[in-house]
């Protein structure tokens, strides 16, 4: 996919605020797949089974994932893949569908982990193919799980079917999928969409 001149994300505070708000809204919606399926249970639910701080957490996580993608692009002097609007919509749809399945799929945690992990690999091949994508997905999976383990330890919520450390084994893969999707959205907002013709070319590692 085509590369573009580097744009300092700090020049677009309004766009980052919008990304935070959108992340708070859509993240809370996605979290509803888990709360309403009984996958997660908040200790003190506020509205629609979520805690009052849920939108804040998802909004903050969203903008952090965006900024880390843009900053690593800048440091490595390589802009990650820019997607066309149809590609971004397709990737986002897949992410929403897989998030839903993580809450409602009638199988054990190992099966869900396998599905989410394989899906991340296939979507990475289809939409990313960059070293940044691998590094940031692993970082997001590790940090995201550590944050959730901490919140569980503090007694704010719990998973109904945890494996180790209070979390299910599919959670890292879900964060990796989030990194791929949110990072792509952030690049589109800051760098712009790629044209359908150039987006059809593969990004080289």
Question: What can you tell me about this protein's structure?
Answer:
This protein is mostly helical and 205 residues long. The protein has one domain. It is 65% helix and 3% strand. The model has no long low-confidence stretch (mean pLDDT 91).
Number of domains: 1
- Integer-rounded radius of gyration: 17 Å
Distance between the ends? 11 Å
Number of beta strands: 2
Strand composition percent? under 5%
Shape label: globular
**Major sheet description:** 2 strands, antiparallel
**Category from helices, strands and their pairing:** mainly alpha
Helix-strand topology string? HEHHHHEHH
- How helical, in percent, are the residues? 55-70%
Strand order of the largest sheet: 1-2
SS field, number of helical segments? 7
- Uncertain runs with pLDDT below 50, 5 residues or more? none
What's the layout of helices and strands?
Blueprint: H1 13-36, E1 40-42, H2 54-76, H3 85-104, H4 109-127, H5 131-153, E2 157-159, H6 171-191, H7 196-199
Antiparallel strand pairs: 1-2
TL;DR?
This protein has one domain (9-199). Helices cover 65% and strands 3% of the residues. The chain has seven helices and two strands; from the N terminus they run αβααααβαα.
